[in-house]
Amino acid sequence: MDTGVKRAFRFRFYPTPVQADLLNRTFGSVRLVYNMALQARTEAWRDRQERVNYTATSAMLTAWKKTGELAFLNEVSCVPLQQCLRHLQGGFTAFWEKRARYPRFKSKRRSRASAEFTASAFTYKNGRLTLAKMTEPLDVVWSRPLPEGTAPSTVTVTRDRAGRWHVSLLCEDRVEALPPTGAMVGADAGLHHLIVLSTGEKIDNPRHERADRTRLARAQRALARKEKGSRNRDKARLKVARVHARIADRRRDHLHKLTTRLVRENCEYGGVLLRAVV
Fold this sequence. Notes:
By secondary structure, the protein is an alpha+beta fold. Helix content is about 40%, strand content about 25%.
């Protein structure tokens, strides 16, 4: 039986200098608007016990864009700014329902640089994706096709700490149920092995960091010698982040392949049955 779901398809892309500048300014504007809205909502509750909702923060955004200090917010698409206010509203809803912690401010150094575009702020046609305020499509590496006959509903652009750009397209997709195998397996996380299966199979831990341990140590030593706040320190930090990204990518790839194999081999009655041994 097929099941309709929403799936995000993530791709690498390479922006032009003009596109990169616009996206970087968009990231900064999104972070600023989010923090200002969070500050306004926090002060309203602290001083007046008033809960400010998304509608009120959207009106604040309109007023901010009319001021001289924040007029630069008009230079980027308004959709990512509105979307960050919606995400803030979702964070407060989860907090009031005691499902999450109080929303935290976004940091330029620690928070992920991202911007979300809805259907009104991008065009996707014949494998070409163009975002609002841009005259040229993004140079996306289409490593796999999108589901046939579907179009993305939202597009999220991100830049990681290693300086890599990614775009995630949310699409409707059909997931086919796996054929039942009638098998099941227990999995125990080990010390000397990654996991040990109840079938007796022992899966070794690849220890991906060992291959890059020397390169990582050299990059970290170079970073430690750079003066804080300098351009050379930013370049050195980027080199360290790239080594960490390489290690994380290899670890993630191995885990995805392993879990996919276990799921396909141990599918009972059309569902997945994996038992962890405690």
